Amino acid sequence: MTTQSDIAAALQRQGVNVYGLQVSGSEVRGTVGTEADRDKAQQAIRAVASDAQVSLQVNSGFADQATRSGEATAGRTYTVKAGDTLSKIAKDVYGDASQWKKIHAANRDAIPNPDMIHPGQELQLP
């Protein structure tokens, strides 16, 4: 069974924000800011939960709010899982493992040594 954190991680890798994400069994609900985000989110969700029944509402107010507050490009987080490295996270999130330095710079207080991250750590993604 796919968990909410699995789905949230897939959405995060695709760079799409789903507000009020709820996963109950095979049903996934939430709100996105644009039709394009809905398509992107549905694709990401179905990649990890092919049998999911996805119900995403579009509310352009969320897109406007994200743009005004800068959330469209910043403010995302990632929860470290066992076996993760900054390079692996960068490859999953940005498609380029060498971008690990961006993640480290954004989390320097929480990660003094980039070779030592721990499951459960919440990282800011620039």
Automatic annotation (TrEMBL):
Positions of the UniProt region annotated as Disordered: 105-126
Alphabetized InterPro entries for the sequence: Bact_Kbp, LysM, LysM_dom_sf
Name of the protein: LysM domain-containing protein
Positions in coiled-coil regions: none
Pfam families (UniProt xref): LysM (PF01476)
PANTHER family: PHAGE-LIKE ELEMENT PBSX PROTEIN XKDP, POTASSIUM BINDING PROTEIN KBP
The species this protein was found in: Roseisolibacter agri
Cited SMART domains: LysM (SM00257)
Segments forming domain LysM: 76-125
